UniProtKB/TrEMBL annotation:
Lineage of the species this protein comes from: Bacteria, Bacillati, Actinomycetota, Actinomycetes, Kitasatosporales
Major localization class: membrane
Subcellular location: Cell membrane
Keywords carried by this UniProt record: Cell membrane, Membrane, Transmembrane, Transmembrane helix, Transport
Descriptive protein name: MFS transporter
Native species: Embleya scabrispora
Coiled coil: none
Amino acid sequence: MTSNGGKLPTGFGRLWTAQTVSSLGDGVSHAALPLLALTLTRDPMALAVVTGAGTLPWLLFGVLGGALVDRWDRRRTMWVADTARAALLVIPAAAAVLDVLSIPLLATVAFLLGLGGLFFDTAATAYLPDLLRRDCALLERANSRLRGTQIAASGFVGPPAGSALLALGRAVPLLADAVSFLLSALLVRTLPAMPRPEPEARESLLRQARAGASYVFRDRLLLGLALRPAIGNIAFVAVETVLALFAHDRLGMDAYGFGLLLTAEAAGGLLGAGLASYLGRRLGTGTALTCTAAVEGLAVLGLAAAPNPYLAGLALAGCGAGVGATMVLGPSLRQAIVPAHLMGRVASTSRMLGMCAAPFGAFLGGWLATTYDVRAPLYAAAGLLLAMTAVTASMTDNRRVEAALRAAAPVGV
């Protein structure tokens, strides 16, 4: 069922490189698009439209996108999505050169990039377990590397690079992102082909999408795995909404110090992603998931009570470590136990739940900070995370995890 000593296939190296290059481009555009919008307007609502447009595809088409991925060849879906995103970025780059760039164009580009990301990410999530033969130990190792390089590329390297490239010209970061998508597409095309899942009985796309969503809600283990990021997003977005204000008013930090605070969180995420596989082996995946969830809640509680920037940075690093480990262990387990023909829909349903929860977190954070004080959202977030830990502990315990892995193992293994 697992093979701790197994080697990752060479095809994984190409997939890893492709996703790293793509994540680097994502980090560039993540910084460049809002800055480009800022050169056009100072209207906060217009800036919010550009920022929020990229998340809309997950809210509108998440489950339907998963159903389509389950019908299509996953490898082809990945390279087509990245090729389309590369071609798309040429349009705003040309508009920047011709000085006809506009907020509606940037918002449209952000939306279509998000739509391409939906198909690429869902297809990659569904392709990986086929490549690694649904071996949970190999999946944990693979996801640890993917998560670690994603944090490094999109969190550490990409945003500063995007800001620096923008200084060379408004089209430069867009073209750099296009090149990253094109390189990713070329690498994905060299991946080994995987057998397509056996087609289901002829059903409408909507019925297949509903079947995938109901599969998550009927299975207590999958539901527990989906609730963690959903409730976690409410808590973390509530914190992010007021974090800059908290750092300035309560900790006396300037913009540079706030950047260091975020760097500490990203560094913790790298550490957590690297330790995830070890924790899963030592504690069992279920217990490890409960522990990382508890660490997240306690770390946010520590952040709320932090009297100085140093302890705040330590708390954020601890929170990042918990999230980094959770984002390796949870998806790896899901990939190991979900049937191939449902993988796209289950993955997209889980991701959509998390994305839908984020706006509630933003509202909660803003309301609590306005009604009480800037620390109130942090205390509320810690309470939510610890309550979520208690509620989902029995849903994702070691006994349930092992039973699911045995049920998913091929006959004779």
